[in-house]
Every structure is written in C-alpha cells, then in structure tokens.
C-alpha cells in the first residue's frame, strides 16, 4: 500500500506537474468552494481524468473568462492546457499554473507570439 494516497490534497498544486511540462485536460465541472482559514470563495475546475480540482486564483479566473466567456456553464467540456510557470507572490518567486485553450494552442503551435505580426522594433526578444 502506498501511504501517499492518504495525504494527497483534493486540489492541484503546481508541484503536481513538472516545470516545463503541460497537461491537456477536459473540464468536467466547475464548482464554487470555500478555501483556507478565511473560507474565501474560489471557482474550482474539475477534470474528467483527474481526482483533484484546480482552485482558480483571480488571474486564472480572468483567463478562463477571456477564453470561454463569463458563464461557467460554457467552460464545461472545454479542453485546457495547464502548464507551470514562475510568478511573484508576496515578494517571492513561486510556481503557478498558466491556462490556455487547446484550440488557441492549435492555432499558434508552440510559439506564443505567432498570433500577431511584429515590426522589428517591437519583436519579442528571443531568450
């Protein structure tokens, strides 16, 4: 018996996915959960193939709205790409999830700048 199964969180953490890796997941349900000692309300994505949910922060919630609209009903059955990225939180660098839609990934491939033309003066620095 593997004892780690008894201490797993019901919510995904960035450490559950290796940095630089991405997971393609279908949203099965969206719920509103109260989390933390202050019982803060968060939207949570539940996935068809994972037992853990992703509790969305404000940035991730805004991203889901940008991708699929403000109605959480329209998020269900959408395929998202989760990847781990570094971000600053309370003055220190931490890992968090970035969210993209599988359809926008298909349009732009691996190049996040492919969706628009850049002049030489504003082209992204390639490092």
- Taking the alpha carbons of the first and last residues, their distance comes to 45 Å
Helix content: 10-25%
Query: How would you state the average pLDDT, rounded?
Result: 80
The assigned structural class equals mainly beta
Q: Within the largest sheet, what's the order of strands?
A: 3-2-1-4-5
Summed up, the domain count is: 1
Query: What's the helix count?
Result: 2
| Topology order in helix (H) and strand (E) letters | EEEHEEH
Largest sheet: number of strands, sense, barrel closure? 5 strands, antiparallel
What overall form do the CA principal axes indicate? globular
Strand element count: 5
Taking all Cα atoms into account, the compactness measure Rg is: 16 Å
Structural commentary:
- By secondary structure, this protein is mainly beta.
- It has one domain.
- Helices cover 14% and strands 36% of the residues.
- It contains two helices and five strands; from the N terminus they run E-E-E-H-E-E-H.
- The chain has a five-stranded antiparallel β-sheet.
- Strand 2 and strand 3 form a beta hairpin.
- The longest helix is centred in the middle third of the chain and has 11 residues.
- The C terminus is likely disordered.
């Amino acid at each position: 018996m593997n004892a780690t199964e008894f201490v797993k969180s019901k919510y995904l953490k960035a450490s559950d996915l290796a940095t630089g890796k991405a997971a393609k997941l279908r949203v099965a349900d969206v719920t509103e959960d109260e989390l933390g000692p202050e019982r803060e309300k968060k939207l949570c994505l539940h996935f068809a193939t994972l037992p853990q949910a992703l509790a969305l922060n404000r940035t991730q919630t805004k991203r889901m709205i940008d991708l699929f609209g403000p109605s959480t009903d329209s998020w269900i059955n959408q395929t998202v790409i989760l990847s781990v990225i570094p971000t600053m939180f309370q003055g220190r660098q931490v890992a968090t999830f970035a969210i993209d839609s599988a359809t926008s990934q298909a349009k732009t491939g691996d190049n996040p700048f492919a969706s628009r033309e850049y002049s030489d003066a504003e082209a992204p620095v390639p490092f």
